[in-house]
Amino acid sequence: MILEAWGPNLPTCFEEAVAALVELCVDAVHARIVERRLVRIPAAPASELLLNLLDEVIFALDIGTNVAVSAEIAARDDGALDMRLQLAARGSVAPTGPAPKGVSRSHLRLDQEAERVHCSFLIDV
């Protein structure tokens, strides 16, 4: 499945990308947040940042008793990202589709303009 997201800046676009990925996998309307986890994404080109943070979200959707349902993303001065994942008890969300296995590098696209960032990516299920 190819997903798209956009926003006025990179962190907002990436938050929307996480939201799209989560929505593909779970219905989080009644999610009970039980954990907040800070994940630092090391500095890299913007497309690599996107790939790395999506991989972290997929890992958090697939492993453990808690599942990622949203993220707040902040850019750091050193080019890294801080991603604050909100995780819900697995029993408080309903699956809406198959669990994602990864993000295809060959279909990853990121376009940055003056006041808009757009990304698209292919999720392997």
Termini separation (Å)?
8 Å
CATH superfamily: Archease domain
Q: What strand line-up does the widest sheet have?
A: 1-8-7
Question: Average pLDDT, to the nearest integer?
Answer: 93
Provide the CATH topology.
Archease, Possible Chaperone, Chain: A, domain 1
Major sheet size, sense and barrel closure: 3 strands, antiparallel
Helix vs. strand class: alpha+beta
- Low-pLDDT residue intervals, each spanning 5 or more residues: none
What is the domain tally?
Answer: 1
Count every beta strand, where a strand is a DSSP E run of 2 or more residues: 8
Q: Using only CA atoms, what is the Rg? A: 14 Å
Taken in chain order, the helices and strands follow as EHEEHEEEEE
Q: Beta-strand percentage?
A: over 45%
Report what the structure shows.
26% of the residues lie in helices and 46% in strands. With 125 residues, it is an alpha+beta fold. It has one domain: Archease domain (Archease, Possible Chaperone, Chain: A, domain 1). The strands form three sheets. A three-stranded antiparallel sheet has the order 1-8-7. A three-stranded antiparallel sheet has the order 3-5-4. The mean pLDDT is 93.
